Amino acid sequence: MKIIIVSYFKPYLFLTDMQFSLFLFCGYVGVSLLSPVMHNLWIWRGTGNANFYFTTAMVYACLQIVLVVEGVSAMLNHDRKLRILVTGKPQDAKS
Questions:
Q1: Cβ(85)–Cβ(6) under 8 Å?
Q2: Is the separation of the CB atoms in 49 and 35 below 8 Å?
Q3: DSSP readout, 31-49?
Q4: Which residue windows are transmembrane per the record (predicted)?
Q5: How far apart are CA 16 and CA 49, in angstroms?
Q6: How confident is the model at residue 6 (pLDDT cuts 50, 70, 90)?
Q7: What local confidence, expressed as pLDDT, does residue 8 receive?
Q8: Cα–Cα distance between 53 and 29 in angstroms, integer?
Q9: Quick one: angle between helices 50-87 and 2-9, nearest 10?
């Protein structure tokens, strides 16, 4: 009965299950604001440095990695809690 209640109220993972959701949100906002500015300075005006544009791309890639790792971690924690709720005991790491 508990599993039905839990699955009814929380069928999917929420953003609050991730630990770095505020960090990711601020990072994506920063990258989305800086990328067009750096592109404009480097390509159209010719006054910017390519390293700044490259850095925004690298930060975006790092944010994507953190997002995937946090999503998988939240899913594994959710599955672990669900398994404990169903069986009543945690599963050993060896089995």
A1: yes
A2: no
A3: HHHHHHHHHIIIIISS-S-
A4: 12-31, 51-76
A5: 37
A6: low
A7: 60
A8: 15
A9: 160
Q: Give me the residue label for tokens 């709720």.
A: 85
Q: Is 41 exposed, middle or buried (0-12, 13-18, 19+ CB in 10 A)?
A: middle
Q: Looking up tokens 């404990």, which residue turns up?
A: 84
Rg (CA), the chain: 20
Length of the chain measured in residues: 95
pLDDT tens-digit profile of 14-67? 655 556 778 888 999 999 999 999 889 888 888 888 888 899 999 999 999 999
**pLDDT attached to residue 46:** 85
Determine phi and psi for 43, rounding to 5 degrees: -85, -55
In 3D space, the residue among 12, 31, 27, 29 whose CA is nearest the CA of residue 66 turns out to be 27
Which is more confident, 74 or 13?
74
| Angle, helix 50-87 to helix 21-39, in steps of 10 degrees | 160
